[in-house]
What does this fold into?
Amino acid sequence: MKEEKYDIKSRNPAELTEFVTGLGEKSFRAKQIFDWLHAKQVSDFEEMKNLPKNLIQTLSRTCAPLSLKQETVQISEQDGTRKYLFMLPDGNRIESVLMRYRHGNAVCISSQAGCRMGCRFCASTQEGLARGLTPSEMLDQVYQIGKETGERVSSVVVMGIGEPLDNFDSFVRFTELLTHEDGLHLSQRNLTVSTCGLVPEIRKLAEYRFSLTLAVSLHAAVQEKRRQLIPVADRYPLPELMEACQYYFEQTGRRVTFEYSLIAGFNDAEADADALAGLLRGLRGGMRCHVNLIPVNPVRGRAFRQPHRAVVAAFKNKLEKNGINVTIRREMGRDIDGACGQLRRRYAQA
Ligand code: SF4
It folds into this structure.
């Protein structure tokens, strides 16, 4: 039987200390290793120059690889967006995206290889879930992109392939490591996690009181319509979801973002905007929220069309007249495989 390798890059300082002392080393080695992994972000144990040779050899032999294999990168000529395809050690593939904004670079990462949530507008779900990513596989997407571009990553969004809260423990550890003061030290405020609405996990995440942003894929403010797009809405109906969001706000004080993909002829009418405004006005206790309107990306094999610009503008207007904070998400990298999961699918089919 093949021996399981130790996933050293997913470990927190306490676990690392236990590991190195178990190898008969002094505990300060753990701090040095953490620094190499998460501050200097090396991709090979040989680069850990202040460690003794024999320790480097032991780590190389017993630990899992530190880096994902980059298979390809597509670069948008329109806006400089870079879309990466990485291969995991077991041959699964994931995507990550670097988006350049005026306020800095944002990296969008995947949290699972595939997804089992089945959202109707999503290319990532069409082959189901292979597995959740480890914390180190999530971190490495951020580290590699930052290193390759040589530019600072100012925010991270966990909005690529997968449902992060369906990989809950890994996501929590990823958050702790990404924002650790001895590592990359990203501010929790600059981290956003997107969920299709897993109510128990939203409540569980609230208990951690991280100051990250929760983005909930709403896409319809009427239960019957929402369940047509998002199958988990059957399990977690809108009233329960909104209660969980309210709870998240109460525990963390963080404004919740509601993502709303606009699909022509389905959820873009005046009545849909009214329903959304009504739903959000029903939130109690001055809960702060924000709506992100996303003209839907066409997905091969799925018949969704983007609404006309004027329809998008009218929808936004209607919400604003109701006092709701709303933005239209600028589409990045439209000239490369736009919707998340499409690049991975194309490679899987090749
Ligand atoms: S939208 Fe997100 S949660 Fe839904 S199927 Fe796609 S990756 Fe999964």
Residues 115, 117-119, 122, 124-125, 161-163, 196 surround iron/sulfur cluster (CB under 6 Å). Residues 87 and 93 are 5 Å apart (CA to CA). DSSP finds eleven helices and twelve strands in the chain.
